[in-house]
Amino acid sequence: MNYILFDVNRESLFPLTHTRPISEIRIGILTIKEKWVHHIGSEPSTLTTNYLQAKYPLQKEADNVYINGGVSPNKALVEAIFQLADGEGLYSGDTLLAYRNAAHQKVSFNGEFTQIEKLWHIFQYNATELQADFDLLTAGHISKNLSDTNLVMGSENIFVAEGAKVEGAILNATTGPIYIGKNAEVMEGSIVRGPLAMCEHSVLKMGAKIYGATTLGPYCKVGGEVNNSVLIGYSNKGHDGFLGNSVLGEWCNIGADTNNSNLKNNYTEVRLWSEQAGCFEKTGLQFCGLIMGDHSKCGINTMFNTGTVVGVSSNIFGPGFPRNFVPSFAWGGSAGYSTYQLPKVFEVAEKVMARRGIAFDDKEKVILEQVFNLTSEQRNF
To answer: How far, CA to CA in Å, does 78 sit from each of 1, 22, 108, 159, 181?
Structure first.
């Protein structure tokens, strides 16, 4: 059987899906695609928008099962998909979950599942997905022992992978699991209250204070105070400052002593900018912080207001609060913006990615060019 993850309304998840299919979003420990790999035992391909398809190619066979790329798998859902006959579509209410070749005949699924439809769902549902991924990844595996230099609570809910380093830390897993991935490092003085996921080669800097449910994707470096946030991968918040109820894409960098607000002074519901709707949307949440697209950066002492969205490859600096929506390829801050031009964008991206041994190739360049053109109307500077 050939499996294909397809995008559903990816525009509702801009700016994160400007540069990736929905299934490449990380929630819990794994990306949605990685979860499906574990559950179905094979690697699905991706059906997404044209300019992303070169990096995330589509592979079709004679018999294909298409799966909603915003939906996380679980045992009951996977079993229902395995049972689909040719021409059947699996639905939960009006939501199409999967179909085999076509969706002519409706089959109902009444079980529970996690679906990412809005930006804030990523941190909102992170605890549920982190527990599910923890159970999936640790089943049948033995954790590496922690040394006596650490103060540990709830050791049965802690998994330490091969090559990980943890010394002089306080780890409390009574509130949720703590997963420390391959070659990750928790430096001395770090204080962790689970749930926490650290993917391979991620680092907690000295004295970091982490509240769950937080995920550090591969090669992320984090210091200061972090609460209920997801860093998809290859991004740094290496210094003091607060990040809460937030999502950072890849190749982001947060300057020293940067803080975001995740609660309005009047305690009212947070609204978040929707590129799709062109207005601020109700989130239904009292706590909502920063959403930052890939390749964006901010300078030292940056202050982000409650419910701020920053697009792709923006560079923010200077005093005062930036506006609650910073368009892609913006250069500046509260004093005003200019357009961050592509030659400079490419130059920085090449340097940043090279530091992690990853080439900034033509596929990456084409994606940023397309996003630059697609978001041009937002930059009325």
So the answer is: 13, 19, 14, 26, 26
CA distances from 317 to 312, 337, 366 (A): 15, 10, 27
- Euclidean distance between CA atoms 239 and 30, whole angstroms: 25
pTM for this entry: 0.96
Q: Residue 1's closest CA among 101, 71, 97, 94?
A: 101
Question: CA separation (Å) from 277 to 13, 286, 343, 375, 381?
Answer: 11, 21, 30, 14, 21
Cβ atoms of 143 and 162 within 8 Å: the answer is no
DSSP state, 381? -
CB 91 within 8 A of CB 106: yes
Task: Report the alpha-carbon distance of residue 49 to residue 21 in Å, rounded.
Answer: 8
Q: Which positions ≥6 away from 12 have C-beta within 8 Å?
A: 117, 118, 119, 274, 276
Q: How far is CA 349 from CA 226, 256, 361, in A?
A: 26, 20, 10
Q: 17-73: per-residue pLDDT in tens?
A: 999 999 999 999 999 999 999 999 999 999 999 999 999 999 999 999 999 999 999
First and final CA of the chain: distance in angstroms? Answer: 50
Tokens coding 142: 């033995």
Q: Rounded to whole angstroms, how far apart are CA atoms 177 and 319?
A: 39
3-state helix, strand, coil in the chain (%, to 5): 20, 30, 50
- Decide if 186 contacts 192 (C-beta within 8 A): yes
